[in-house]
Amino acid sequence: MFITAIDLGSAYIKGIIAEQRKDGSLVLVKTIKRESKGIKKGEIVYPEETVKGLFEVLSIIKQFDKKCLRNIVFGISGTRVQFHLSRAAISIPRPDFEILSEDVDRVIQESMAIQIPAGWQIIHSFPREFVIDGIEVEGTDVVGLSGKKLEANVVLISAFSSVYRNFRRVTDLVLGKKGDFLGSVIFTPLASERATLTKSQKELGAVLLDIGYGTTGVAVFQDGRLLVAKVLPIGSGHITNDLAVGLRCTILTAELIKIEYGNANARDVSVRDKLDMSQYEPELSSQTSLKFVAEIIEARVREVFGLVQDELKSLGVFGKLPAGVVLVGGGAKLKGLADIAREELKSPVKIGFPNTDEFEKAHSGLAETDDPSYAAVCGLVLQRSDQTNKKYVARSFAHTPLDVNESWFKRIIRILRANE
């Protein structure tokens, strides 16, 4: 069986195909990466543009093997996706009090009875911990255990209806279906932490920061429990915009300078180091100080970590998480970033990489996944594998039919045909 994961990022659409063997092990067989369009701050804002990129990715997947389209998991992100905690309890109705998978489903379903703001809908759910007859159970696999009463503390992820509607329109249309959602949806910060954080890090207490182009995903753990997962409306693309303004150059030039010469720690850059701007744009004949470039970058980076600091203080865990901060995402590769994170967050900091020990690579050309920017899409595969292995990790509750406007549908089909 194949598992196909697709991460719709603000800068790139990334895809991974993995084959899951009968013993549950995973073999990574293909990666796809294409420029993303129509996505701002993690949300689909121009569906027609997003469809083009996603259609191209899915065409490559289909050419590899049509079976890969049967089991797809998508990452969903954006500031209008929210984290909730809910608690529910049920009685076990059987004389032997053995807990079955249907009991777990029932208690999770009961947890969804909480009130959420109008205009929002729950898109997936997973248990944080279980309690049987008043005793907390280690782990989340309680099937086969016995007890009269099963309680669950459940994490619910909701999305603003218009955000999810655009997401569904794009995925349904490109997959060729109008309503029956083929795959599942997982909140991207939870995918990133699944691929990166170890069990011991979560037990000690850790923060996962997924710094993307348009947003920064945050997941905080303490005593093995997820305290919060959210998305901040700021990412490495804001650094690019700042450089474009400060250096009076194009966005493309600013992005290249950030990648090639960027440093988030201005103290590490000499005032004597200069950059000839004409190598990027001939009309820019002046030289620019690389220290000035670093100062622009550092100012925005400190703002990002300041927002994270506020979040940790609100949880009462600022400076109190021994496993520290793990940085992933494309923005995590910025030189000097970890130094500023240590200063601002008063914690140990490391750059994280997907735990590819859980994958077997089919060939050496797949080494590109050993990169912080692949944390989310690798995590999507692992989350989907967990579901397939019947671990109660994340369940999608967003399978209601979607009413697709006919004129909108025809317009999308015209775009797809133009790109065939």
List keywords for this structure.
single chain; 420 residues; Nucleotidyltransferase, domain 5; Dna Ligase, domain 1; 3 domains; six-stranded mixed beta sheet; globular; cell division; cell cycle
Task: Characterize the structure shown.
The strands form 5 sheets. This protein has a 6-stranded mixed beta sheet. Strands 7, 8, 9, 10 and 20 form a 5-stranded antiparallel beta sheet that branches. Strands 14-13-12-17-18 form a 5-stranded mixed beta sheet, with helices on both faces. Mean pLDDT is 88; it is low at 178-183 and 397-406. With 420 residues, the chain is α/β, with parallel strands linked by helices. It has 3 domains: 1-83 and 161-198 and 355-420, ATPase, nucleotide binding domain (Nucleotidyltransferase, domain 5), CATH 3.30.420.40; 84-160, Dna Ligase, domain 1, CATH 3.30.1490.110; 200-353, Nucleotidyltransferase, domain 5 (2-Layer Sandwich). The chain is globular. Helix content is 34%, strand content 28%. The chain has helices at 47-64, 101-111, 161-175, 188-196, 199-204, 236-247, 251-261, 290-315, 337-345, 375-388, 406-418; strands at 2-8, 12-20, 26-35, 39-40, 43-44, 72-76, 81-91, 120-132, 135-137, 149-160, 184-187, 206-211, 216-222, 225-232, 274-276, 287-289, 324-328, 349-351, 359-361, 395-396. Helix 4 (188-196) crosses helix 10 (375-388) and helix 6 runs antiparallel to helix 8.
Write a brief caption for the model.
The chain is α/β, with parallel strands linked by helices and 420 residues long. It has helices at residues 47-64, 101-111, 161-175, 188-196, 199-204, 236-247, 251-261, 290-315, 337-345, 375-388, 406-418, and strands at 2-8, 12-20, 26-35, 39-40, 43-44, 72-76, 81-91, 120-132, 135-137, 149-160, 184-187, 206-211, 216-222, 225-232, 274-276, 287-289, 324-328, 349-351, 359-361, 395-396.
